[in-house]
Design brief:
The complex is a heterodimer. By secondary structure, chain A is an alpha+beta fold. Helices cover 39% and strands 10% of the residues of chain A. A four-stranded mixed β-sheet of chain A has the order 2-1-3-4, with helices on one face. The two termini of chain A are 32 Å apart. Chain B is globular and about 80 Å long. Chain B contains 20 helices and eleven strands. In chain B, strand 3 and strand 4 form a beta hairpin. Helix content of chain B is 42%, strand content 13%. The longest helix of chain B has 25 residues. The chains are: A alpha+beta, B alpha/beta. The complex binds flavin mononucleotide, iron/sulfur cluster and FE2/S2 (inorganic) cluster.
Chain lengths: 179, 452
């Protein structure tokens, strides 16, 4: 799939002191003058702090902080699949559907989840809460079928567990980021 | 019970925490290495162990270490490859998640052997929960004097950091990983120069897999010769196998190399045989990039020898009747699995993950995916199988990095061993509409239809 930057999606950029301090810590992991190395971790960090996606403004801000050219940030953001280049659902159910998960019913479970939520793959529910996507092997092949939600893996999934997970998301009871 | 080197202590309650790890003999190899050994002695010990790289290619670790350029005086680095994205492979995660200090301990000793003062662990971005476990463990190691300046008063300095990727299988390839760590797209570099001469920031760098590095503490404490006594032939030591698919006990196992495949697959201590006792159809022994095999080549080689869990035995027969131990991603298929769908699935993976630098890989993986999609969805023609064969043959060996080969081999092996399933899809499109068609009517039941 082409990963492109679409300029009309905009977001309020807000780099808090806390985020700025963490950026400082991350860049300190690389030698003087090699702060560009911190680009991937920094993009994760600011994405997490901005509703899980990266606008052009946000990427430009990162370029400014790391003292690199904006194009260097765009090149990276469009290459790696974990960077979202447009607004996303709050709860993104990302199912692994690669071989090992596929033979253990991942696609059937994705279909189930889509119909339960009333969306097609890639669509967001009208309330902005949920979306369903297929992704490639997440390193949980023996615990299939599985999905990723935020930082966490949900393994050995079944339709019943999907129902429960959706319910818990609606009630705001689902852990998203590990500490 | 076979010998356990990596997972011996993994079930000790609290072993993830520094104190418990230390109380159970943790970091002893750092004391021994830094206080009693020279870097050269460490390299010799690892050479003597016969340890081969556990990331997939099986290159001897000690030999790689001996290639690192120490003459130029440039800063050197160890880069621990924790990208683990090869379908079927989830062993490194098991170590990092449950016994993170073992990897850190190994990284310190290995960095000392390489005379590196700045090293990194590159972990795939999806393992964010593991990233945080490692980050915490590294903090503990600093706090207890195992990292930082003048470690154990020996004058040796080492900084170690964990760095996360962001979703790209290709960043498991060592030169792509270096590019990525420099904050760029993960495009593999042309070799030579090899990373041991010019790697991270053009400085000498050794890239090793998590499991390789986690084996170093034991080798350091017990000696390379002792390690070499475990295993069989040039497959020394133990190997982590991550097993998935249609088996009773999927999960991660540490085995002594040389165990028979039969024992590993069928004994209750390991995989426990097939789920629902359905027949075995196929096996991928070493991650999605290696050849898929039909039952007649799984338990025996073409010569009739027992197939063993070792590098040599799995590659016995070459690409025609053999495969490869690879990363140890052991994927088992029963008769409900569809080899055409599986091959399409994997070619979609490789197409998605191609970095796009070389045309045989960028275009070839796309063409293969398209043709396989067509066959899987009942729109294939008789010529398609030959076309597929030609495309895979033209990718192999014609690309910058081995991802091209990795995409080609599974397709070749699927056609070689399971051609009848491709034919069945092409000739009976109405019977394969449902993706689970083999659950209802396995190949056994429909094979007679193929007789013209
Ligand atoms: C496409 C591709 C993906 C790879 N992925 C990984 C990986 O996820 N982990 C890994 O350790 N090695 C991976 N490798 C192998 C590395 O390039 C390298 O050989 C390895 O990390 C060296 O460590 P070792 O000698 O300890 O195995 C990959 C290679 C290729 C071509
Ligand atoms: S073989 Fe594929 S992944 Fe490797 S460098 Fe070429 S295009 Fe990129
Ligand atoms: S194939 Fe699904 S996690 Fe590996």
């Amino acid at each position: 799939m082409e990963r492109v930057i679409i300029k009309q999606f905009t977001q309020q950029v807000n780099i808090t002191d806390e985020v700025m301090a963490r950026i400082g810590e991350l860049t300190s992991h690389y030698p003087e003058g090699k702060q560009k190395s911190a680009l991937l971790p920094v993009l994760h960090l600011v994405q997490d702090a901005h509703d899980n996606w990266l606008s052009v403004d946000l990427m430009d801000k990162v370029a400014e902080i790391l003292q690199i050219k904006p194009i260097e940030v765009y090149e990276v953001a469009t290459f790696y699949s974990m960077y979202n280049l447009k607004p996303v659902a709050k709860y993104k159910f990302e199912f692994c559907r690669t071989a090992c998960c596929s033979i253990r019913g991942a696609e059937d479970l994705m279909d189930y989840t889509c119909s339960k939520l009333g969306v097609k793959e890639g669509e967001i529910t009208p309330d902005g809460l949920f979306s369903v996507a297929g992704v490639e092997c997440l390193g949980a092949c023996g615990y299939a079928p599985m999905l990723q939600l935020g930082d966490f893996y949900h393994e050995h999934m079944t339709p019943e567990k999907i129902d429960e997970l959706i319910e818990n998301c609606k009630q705001g009871k689902v852990e998203f980021y590990s500490e | 019970m076979g010998k356990k080197i990596l997972t011996e202590k993994i079930n000790i309650p609290g072993i993830r925490e520094y104190d418990v790890y230390r109380q159970n003999g943790g970091y002893k190899s750092v004391e021994k290495a830094l206080k009693e050994m020279t870097p050269e002695q460490l390299v010799e010990s690892v050479k003597a162990s016969g340890l081969r790289g556990r990331g997939g290619a099986g290159f001897p670790v000690g030999m790689k270490w001996s290639f690192i350029d120490k003459k130029s005086g440039k800063p050197r680095h160890l880069l621990v490859n924790a990208d683990e994205s090869e379908p079927g492979t989830f062993k490194d995660r098991y170590l990092m998640e449950f016994i993170p200090h073992l990897l850190i301990e190994g990284a310190i000793v290995s960095s000392f052997a390489l005379e590196a003062n700045l090293s990194y662990i590159y972990i795939r971005g999806e393992y964010m929960f593991v990233f945080k476990i490692l980050e915490k463990a590294i903090k503990e190691a600093y706090a207890n004097g195992w990292l930082g300046k003048n470690i154990l008063g020996t004058g040796y300095n080492l900084d170690l950091y964990v760095h996360c990727g962001a979703g790209a299988y290709i960043c498991g390839e060592e030169t792509a990983q270096i590019e990525s760590l420099e904050g760029k797209r993960g495009n593999p570099r042309i070799k030579p120069p090899f990373p041991a001469v010019s790697g991270l920031w053009n400085e000498p760098t050794v890239v090793n897999n998590v499991e390789s590095i986690a084996s170093i503490p034991w080798i350091t404490l017990n000696g390379g010769e002792e390690y070499a006594k475990i295993g069989i032939g040039r497959s020394t030591g133990t190997k982590l196998i991550s097993a998935s698919g249609h088996i009773k006990n999927p999960g991660v196992y540490e085995i002594e190399m040389g165990m028979t495949v039969d024992e590993f697959m069928n004994s209750d201590e390991y995989l426990g045989g097939m789920i629902d006792d359905r027949p075995l159809k196929a096996l991928i022994p070493g991650g999605s990039s290696v050849q898929i095999l039909p039952p007649q080549y799984i338990f025996k080689t073409a010569n009739g020898d027992d197939r063993l869990m070792s590098y040599e035995s799995w590659s016995d027969g070459g690409p025609v009747t053999g495969s490869s131990l690879g990363s140890g991603g052991f994927i088992v298929y029963n008769d409900t699995a569809c080899i055409v769908r599986n091959t399409w699935n994997l070619s979609r993976f490789y197409h998605h993950e191609s970095c796009g630098q070389c045309s045989p890989c960028r275009e070839g993986t796309g063409w293969m995916e398209k043709i396989l999609y067509r066959i899987e969805h009942g729109q294939g023609t008789e010529e398609d199988v030959d076309l597929l064969w030609d495309i895979q043959a033209n990718i192999e060996g014609n690309t910058i990095c081995p991802l091209g080969d990795a995409a080609a081999w599974p397709v070749a092996a699927a056609i070689r061993h399971f051609r009848e399933e491709f034919e069945y899809h092409i000739r009976f499109p109405e019977k394969i509409k449902n993706r689970n068609h083999f659950r209802e009517e396995p190949m056994e039941k429909v094979r007679q239809l193929l007789v013209k």
